[in-house]
Amino acid sequence: MAKAVTFYFDFGSPTSYLAWTQLPRIAEETGATIDWRPVLLGGIFKATGNRSPVEIPAKGAYMLRDMQRFAARYGVPFTMNPHFPVNTLTLMRAAVGVQLRHPERFLRFIEAVYKALWVEAKDIGDPAVAAGVIRSAGLDPGEVMALTNHPEIKEKLRAETDAAVGRGLFGAPTMFVGDEMFWGQDRLDFVRDALKDAA
Amino acid sequence: MAKAVTFYFDFGSPTSYLAWTQLPRIAEETGATIDWRPVLLGGIFKATGNRSPVEIPAKGAYMLRDMQRFAARYGVPFTMNPHFPVNTLTLMRAAVGVQLRHPERFLRFIEAVYKALWVEAKDIGDPAVAAGVIRSAGLDPGEVMALTNHPEIKEKLRAETDAAVGRGLFGAPTMFVGDEMFWGQDRLDFVRDALKDAA
């Protein structure tokens, strides 16, 4: 069995964006595959009682500075989205749908959404903006939006989110290497070490 | 003016203990002094609406594993205190009192309390245990306990805690290099970089 890192993410989490900018390189360096798991962070918060750091104003202000520092360290662009917090229910259902029905376009879709949200700071809640982002990933917006209303897709996102909570998740991004859980883009160095040590 | 790092800490915070194990070496390496600021974390939580991570059970379980990983990385002992959460009001008043009246024993006092709590996992709420810890720092337990009831000492801890909140603190440990704030023992590498860059 090849070594793997499981990546639980929600597009609405800017720290998940930062992790996404780094994880493919870490996986490549360590010869690992990435097991991508779209989950609904709002559902995880509801199930665990955890809250977004921005609900504490002082913490929200600090987090912004902290994310800017990491973006500078990583050498990646980062723009705080003025439409934050983003309701990601439809987006995460879309991710599940694209992963199931168009797996060959899944990584392009992730990239298109993350860049729209955290580089271009777009208002992805605007249907025209969302359609443009989906189209830029080589997908048909009408078809992807229809997928987000499909009972199987809705249920899969719900089941993945519940399973994540059952595994101990309380926030995003969360990574697993084997049974070892790592929370936060600031734990990627531990993820790298765990992947290096993995058989 | 010599370069300095301001260290806001509460004895009851295990991540503040971890930061304390590393900060003197970082200060030495970068030629900086440490400006020690005892504050009451409970007061900071109350003022900002922030909460201890352990109030979310899944987060508390993860934090323990996370702190063990950092202790291993730092090569320092760490034992979760079974009496956690610790009411640190008297201890933090004692820190303020010792810092004012016995500055030459202040660092020994910090070391004695941190080791009692996070290495030996003692029940420091037990007056006999507290007296032993104070004595081990070369201080008189009766005198230090009397200091904790002194209005000037009580007011100084309150004022320092309020000032910390005014400066943006929402948790501990928190460090400042100039006006740049860093929260968490996991940001010590950024503190080191800031000290290296400081004039």
Task: Walk me through the structure.
The structure is a homodimer of 199-residue chains. By secondary structure, the first copy, chain A, is α+β, with helices and mostly antiparallel strands. Helix content of chain A is 56%, strand content 10%. The first copy, chain A, is built from nine helices and four strands, in the order E-H-E-H-H-H-H-H-H-H-E-E-H. Chain A has helices at 14-30, 41-48, 57-74, 89-101, 106-118, 127-136, 141-147, 151-166, 188-197; strands at residues 4-9, 33-38, 174-177, 180-183. Chain A has a four-stranded mixed sheet with strand order 2-1-3-4, sandwiched between helices. In chain A, helix 1 runs parallel beside helix 3 and helix 4 (89-101) crosses helix 8. The longest helix of chain A has 18 residues, at 57-74. The first copy, chain A, is globular and about 45 Å long.
For the biggest sheet of chain A, the summary is: 4 strands, mixed
Low-confidence stretches of chain A: none
Helix content of chain A: 55-70%
Instruction: Please work out how many helical segments of chain A DSSP would assign.
Output: 9
- Largest interchain contact: A-B, 23 and 23 residues
So what's the overall shape of chain A? globular
Percent of sequence in beta strands of chain A? 5-15%
Name the quaternary structure: homodimer
Radius of gyration of chain A: 16 Å
Number of strands of chain A: 4
Secondary-structure element sequence of chain A? EHEHHHHHHHEEH
Structural class of chain A, please? alpha+beta
The average pLDDT of chain A is 96
Write out the strand line-up for the largest beta sheet of chain A, numbering strands in chain order.
2-1-3-4
Distance from first to last alpha carbon of chain A? 9 Å
